[in-house]
């Protein structure tokens, strides 16, 4: 009996944590299936009459501009990821495999830049983007996602150090130039690091709110489309709930299938 | 050109499981001092050009501009305004409307202690044998991945008058719950709690990772010596993760100062919930005082750099910086 108590407490606390996490999400799920009259007349914890009532999801998709949001996010995500990987691996290749004048300076620049809080520096970045004529374009977002990714470079650097340089040398002897070595040897060997970067960066871009809010006011990305529900659907919590569920669903699916990679990636990204 | 070794080496990463990242390949050869022959070569600069170019353009040009703007009275439109010296900085420290918002950070700073305590507790108990540990680990971690706007709406819904929270509390006999977000004396607690809900998962997974990297033999040796769970925690786990805990504490300071998304999405900074970052952005983009806002941003930057400097002093040989 004495032995049982700590175990019971342990499981009780775990269940309490699970409830604390899942309850706020579940009630939103319940609300998303309710009709508006049903929402008004039932409490938050009563289940919907019809679990197959997808009207709110349709409203969120069609009138809430979520289609546009998903398309914009997908396009910007794909271009930014491809660019980040190319730029990040090339930069890491130069820093890890070459000795050159100014190497310390370049490393220092990346290190210091990783400390600058990016939200506040938008005060000045905004002026720059608008002077380049990119305000309210998707290019502005791609550019910002590409230009500020220092964590990706650190992950690539760390991983590249474990790729033996003898591979480069062997290829050199066979007459390969540096570009070929980078493209045909280094890049393929970096696959695990690339997967890590795709996960960290992909989640970050999918969840990014302030950059699209500031730079792309006329079109929505996924976060801003949902944020804009505040106006037109202000009192229609069943529609807002449906939109919220639609945004969380892809994250949940990705999490279920990529769990191990996500854990590892986040630890790698956070503790460089 | 023939790149014969390429193909055989390319086959390697597919065979290597991600868990054994460095293992087999690192053994393939000793990293020699090969690097590069002396003499000037353009090659590294070509590989660097894009990355460094974007870094300068999007990080350093704005940073330098920001310092310049902070000494002017610019409104963000037309040519940069007149030089006003330290007037903006004076304003930040003397205007209670601006300086006062630093107080809001205290709620989040306090909350980050709760967050770390929870994260540490669950990381420790889940590192021991537990049923459904995968499920619990996933549930505790998942909120960290959720879109910030979605979290904002989930909690706006939860905190509504007669909403979920009030309903649950009524089961326990609380009949007159406060206005969780409408009452200025409570709103910051509600928002800080939301922040704990969102970020505990990150601390949790970092702590768990640190605990799991402690060699298993240590536990076995301790068990043989008759150490119970408490002693295992006190003498094995805690020393093993002291560093990451310490770092998390220090980083909680800059984290608390840079709080933005949750209050911005949920209350827009109303009811005394404006944080320093919200105030800075409103000053810049709503009131169009780019000069003043730049001064605020520079002050935040200096504080963050100071905190990092202290962190490096306290934990000198650890290359960790959570950004």
Quick summary:
Chain A: This is Sugar ABC transporter permease. The complex is a heterodimer of chains A (272) and B (323). Chain A is mainly α and 272 residues long.
Provide key terms for this protein:
heterodimer; A: 272 residues; mainly alpha; MetI-like fold; 75% helix; B: 323 residues; 67% helix; globular; disordered N terminus; disordered C terminus; transport (chain A)
Structure notes:
The complex is a heterodimer of chains A (272) and B (323). Chain A has 272 residues and is mainly alpha-helical. Chain A has one domain (60-270): MetI-like (MetI-like fold, Orthogonal Bundle), CATH 1.10.3720. Chain A is 75% helix and 0% strand. Chain A is built from 14 helices and no strands. In chain A, helix 1 crosses helix 14, helix 3 crosses helix 14 and helix 11 (191-207) runs antiparallel to helix 14 (237-270). The two termini of chain A are 46 Å apart. The model of chain A has no long low-confidence stretch (mean pLDDT 90). With 323 residues, chain B is mostly helical. Chain B has a domain at 105-272: Orthogonal Bundle (MetI-like fold), CATH 1.10.3720.10. Chain B is 67% helix and 0% strand. In chain B, helix 12 (229-257) runs antiparallel to helix 15 (290-314) and helix 14 runs antiparallel to helix 15 (290-314). The radius of gyration of chain B is 26 Å and the shape is globular. Residues 1-37 and 319-323 of chain B have low confidence and may be disordered. At the A-B interface, helix 1, helix 4, helix 5, helix 6 and helix 7 of A face helix 1, helix 2, helix 3, helix 6 and helix 7 of B. Chain A: It is found in: Cell membrane. Chain A: Keywords: Cell membrane, Membrane, Transmembrane, Transmembrane helix, Transport. Chain A: Residues 70-258 form the ABC transmembrane type-1 domain. Chain A: This is Sugar ABC transporter permease. Chain A: It comes from Glutamicibacter nicotianae. Chain B: It is found in: Cell membrane.
